[in-house]
Amino acid sequence: MKYVLMFIETEQFAKDLAAMSPDEREQAYQRVNQWFIDHADKIRGGRKLQGPQSATTLRLDGPAPVATDGPFMEGKEVVSGFTEIEATDLDEVLRIVKSWPGCPVVEIRPVES
């Protein structure tokens, strides 16, 4: 079964990352890259997204569509990237995601067949 993992950065995570020295930040990126290498047999695709300032949101819940710049809500959390993985079940996905070394929140959704 395929699942999408959405990596969600928090404000605190972004602040912590910005406060790191260049060497610390490089080590953090290397841990994330290693996670992708370690799970390459399960990964089917994915990308890092541009920052929330690049987002455009289209609201369709009013009398007419309304487009706005930025993320869809005022929030402390932003989806920063996603990947699609293939696993036998949710338990396997949870085992994989528990070792994620990046941002502190990962939303997991099964892909409809």
Please characterize this protein's 3D structure.
The mean pLDDT is 90. It is built from three helices and six strands. Strand 3 and strand 4 (66-69) form a beta hairpin. A four-stranded antiparallel beta sheet has the order 2-5-1-6. Strands 3-4 form a two-stranded antiparallel ribbon. It has a single domain, classed as Dimeric alpha+beta barrel (Alpha-Beta Plaits). With 113 residues, the chain is α+β, with helices and mostly antiparallel strands.
Query: What's the overall geometry?
Result: flat
Task: Give the helices and strands as they follow along the chain.
Answer: EHHEEEEHE
Number of strands: 6
- Percent of residues in beta strands: 25-35%
- Total of helices: 3
Coarse structural class: alpha+beta
CATH fold title: Alpha-Beta Plaits
* Overall CATH class: Alpha Beta
* Total domain units: 1
Largest sheet properties: 4 strands, antiparallel
Key features of this structure:
single chain; 113 residues; alpha+beta; Alpha-Beta Plaits; four-stranded antiparallel sheet; two-stranded antiparallel sheet; 6 strands
Summed up, what is this model?
The protein has 113 residues and is an alpha+beta fold.
Spell out the blueprint of helices and strands.
Elements: E1 2-10, H1 11-19, H2 22-38, E2 43-48, E3 56-59, E4 66-69, E5 77-86, H3 90-97, E6 105-110
Antiparallel strand pairs: 1-5, 1-6, 2-5, 3-4
